[in-house]
Amino acid sequence: MTTALVTGAAGALGRAIVRRLTADGHRVAALDVEAKGLDGALPLETDLRDPAAVEAAFAETRARLGPVGILVNNAAVYPARPFLEVPLAEYDDVHAVNQRAYWLAAQLAAQQMSTQTSGRGGAIVNVASITMHGGWSDLAAYVATKGAAAALTRALARELGPEEIRVNCVSPGAFPTAAETIHPDPEAYDRMVLERQALQRRGKPEELAAVVSFLTGPDASFVTGQTIEVNGGWVMA
Ligand SMILES: NC(=O)c1ccc[n+]([C@@H]2O[C@H](COP(=O)([O-])OP(=O)(O)OC[C@H]3O[C@@H](n4cnc5c(N)ncnc54)[C@H](O)[C@@H]3O)[C@@H](O)[C@H]2O)c1
Questions:
Q1: Which pLDDT does position 152 carry in this prediction?
Q2: What is the CATH number of the domain that holds 84?
Q3: pLDDT tens digits in sequence order for the chain, 237 residues long
Q4: Distance (Å, whole) CA 69 – CA 26
Q5: To test the ligand 1 pocket, which listed residue (175, 192, 212) has its Cβ within 8 A of the most ligand atoms?
Q6: How many independent structural domains does the chain possess?
Q7: Is residue 54 part of a domain?
Q8: Annotated catalytic, 142?
Q9: Cα–Cα 20 to 30 A to 45, which of 15, 29, 55, 181?
Q10: Is residue 237 domain-resident?
Q11: Ligand 1 atom nearest 127 alpha carbon
């Protein structure tokens, strides 16, 4: 049994990841700005934009559940606006949640996982997005942070490998979640997704969570620095 911390735990994909890691037998800390209704998990109501609050959440997790052995960096914000109209403050906000917090959480987790401190190692999964491959209009800041999540994955895998810390990335395609409400015509969006996917159905959050489970589990013990596309065959990278 390992202690797992999942960020963005109250979102559609985050909830599925929390459920799956709990079913895998882990003690799960569920971090979100509002962490309600996450039965069985330790709720951490934390704003990832606040580094001191993130540090406190990791300290609380360690005190209540033991040192973190699994981290899933899953939280994200995705305000839609044409590139030329994005205020720098909005870019900073997107970066603070989708990238700086991934960095800080990985650092805090690695300190608890390090073989030097725990003798155990650990597994980190960063959640990217299919949009990092082909771009997406009106989401430039979001897309940039998702490319950064994949690149950070490789850099940390290289640097933390000697500590037996594996770092991987999952890149979701289009899952039917609240995130889709940013697209104005849901039926047209649904048709567009199926035209691009090889599989002719929408993905389920559980199918993303299953890949996170694999990457954080013993069957992936020799897998690090990889990005796994979970998109029904939309982008084949
Ligand atoms: N849903 C999709 O189709 C899809 C596609 C590609 C990538 N993704 C990625 O999957 C991940 C989960 O997406 P989702 O669809 O579940 O989105 P979601 O919006 O349902 O969940 C994101 C969660 O992050 C939390 N969050 C946002 N800002 C925060 C902050 N400052 N502090 C703490 N928590 C904060 C939100 O409260 C929310 O619960 C994201 O990284 C997203 O980029 C999703």
A1: 98
A2: 3.40.50.720
A3: 899 999 999 999 999 999 999 999 999 999 999 988 888 999 999 999 999 999 999 999 999 999 999 999 999 999 999 999 999 999 999 999 999 999 999 999 999 997 666 668 999 999 999 999 999 999 999 999 999 999 999 999 999 999 999 999 999 999 998 878 778 888 899 999 999 999 999 999 999 999 999 999 999 999 999 999 999 999 997
A4: 10
A5: 175
A6: 1
A7: yes
A8: yes
A9: 181
A10: no
A11: 41
* Spatial CB neighbours of 215, under 8 Å, sequence gap ≥ 6: 123, 125, 166, 168, 170, 223, 228
Question: Ligand 1 centre from 119 Cα, in Å?
Answer: 32
- Give the domain extent around 189: 3-230
Position 236 in a domain? no
The verdict on residue 10 lying in a domain is: yes
- Atom 7 (ligand 1): residue with closest C-alpha? 129
State which ligand 1 atom lies nearest to the alpha carbon of 47: 32
The 3-state secondary structure of 44-86, one letter per residue: EECCCCCHHHHHHHHHHHHHHHCCEEEEEECCCCCCCCCHHHC
